[in-house]
Amino acid sequence: MADGLVFALSLLATLGAGVMAGFFFTFSNTVMQALARIPVPAGIQAMQAINVIVLNPVFFAAFFGTGLLGILLGVLALLGLVPSGGVWLVAGGLFYVVGTFLVTVVFNVPMNEALAKVDPASTQGADLWRDYLSRWVMWNHLRTLASLVALASFVVALMQQA
Fold it and tell me: Domain-by-domain residue ranges, the chain?
């Protein structure tokens, strides 16, 4: 495979991991803390709205595209088609796919779906919200860390490719 194409794909994976790390960091550091400080029904309603609006083409391109690039680059590296930095591409792809993508699908999305079904003003909603805030944020911290490690791995790969 052409070195320039591998470099370009690696750069895109790096940027994607950085965008996602920043996105998740912002939620852990700011958004969820703010939602926890407002009245429960308002916090639930705001998060329900966020969970709808986040499903857009720009988010999908960054979230899914980075995962696909991580898989592609990892496979290319394992097949010996990457001139240098292959180990770091495999590491970045694994951290992103397992720690960011799979954690999202297995943990955060089901919690978002459960939250979408509750009445924000109900006792059930308030009970769910308390649990949601702690568990969702815990898994979000992991997504943030995994995205940062993927970002660092992709950066090292780029440095070795340069």
Answer: 3-161
Q: 34-55 pLDDT, tens per residue?
A: 999 999 999 999 999 999 999 9
Amino acid occupying residue 137: V
Q: How far is CA 36 from CA 46, 117, 118, 131, 132, in A?
A: 11, 19, 17, 11, 10
Beta carbons within 10 angstroms of residue 89's beta carbon: 31
pLDDT digits (tens, 9 = 90+) for 51-84: 999 999 999 999 999 999 999 999 999 999 998 9
Taking the whole predicted model, whether its pTM rises above 0.85 is answered as yes
Question: In the chain, what is the greatest distance between 2 CA atoms, to the nearest angstrom?
Answer: 59
